[in-house]
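input
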Amino acid sequence: MRKFFAFLCVAFLCFCFVSCSGSGESTTSTANVKKHKIGILAPAVTHGWVAAVAYFAEQRCKELSAEGGIEYKLLTSSSADEMTQQLDDLEAWGVEGIVTFPQWKGMEVPIGAAIQRGVKVVSFDIAIDAPGIYLVSGDNESMGRESAKYLIGKLGKEATIAVLEVPTSGSVSDLRLKGFVDVIKAEAPGMKLLKYATKFTREDGLKDFADILVANSKIDGVFSMDDETSIGVLQAIKEAGRKDIKVVTGGGGCQEYFKLMPGSKDITIQSALYSPSMIIEAVNTAASLVKGESVDAVKIIPTTIVDSTNCEKFMDANSPY
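output
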């Protein structure tokens, strides 16, 4: 009897041990899931496209957070100094991966230093010289090339084109201008290019192009790199009562601009699509990097041309831009 009782005790203790061990493993496994920290550094909103970038970035971060394993902070800044301070703040928080939209020159140094300290950094939209950085961008150079081809196709090879570059936007403007000029030199060297500086806002497009119209009595087309700049350009043309301009290009993905396309009879309106939703791919890249997954160092998203013939396909009532 004693032997049987002892056997029962041992069996009971073994059962308890196995049961408790199984439960403990499950609880420990769930509690110990590592949460990777991602930071998003975006410019303060001065432009609808920039606002949409922050919107799409946060939406994707929320999805990743809900799936588990990701924590995030999204910070916006108005200068290189402020973005540099926020970079320091994220590192103090323990960030492992950062998606940055560095619109100001000089960010190469602090970003490069963060990379050297082990932070994975994905630059969105803007190529900067920092060893070890990842890049997700639309094809800025292709946007310029395709817009040049579009203008040549609509206006011929001897037209006068107002070229609106945006030097303050760094590589974005540089690459779009390079693509444009390369095609003009190769395919339409007889075109006359009138170069002016502006900014990526409709207010600057209106103000600057009003002055350009006063200075030039004959313009056939406008190479604008941005949809909002182009909205300002179109308003300036309308207010000046000019009838000589037949084509205005743009770039981005502005729903308001797309809606102008079908009803424009005197001016052909075009946009080289550069959707702010591309930031989702940059967030995905950062998430993969902090998890130790392999990703391409550079991801370039192809250009699509939008005009009255296909703009309905790109209308999106839910887009914040």
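quick obs: The two ends are 83 Å apart (CA to CA).
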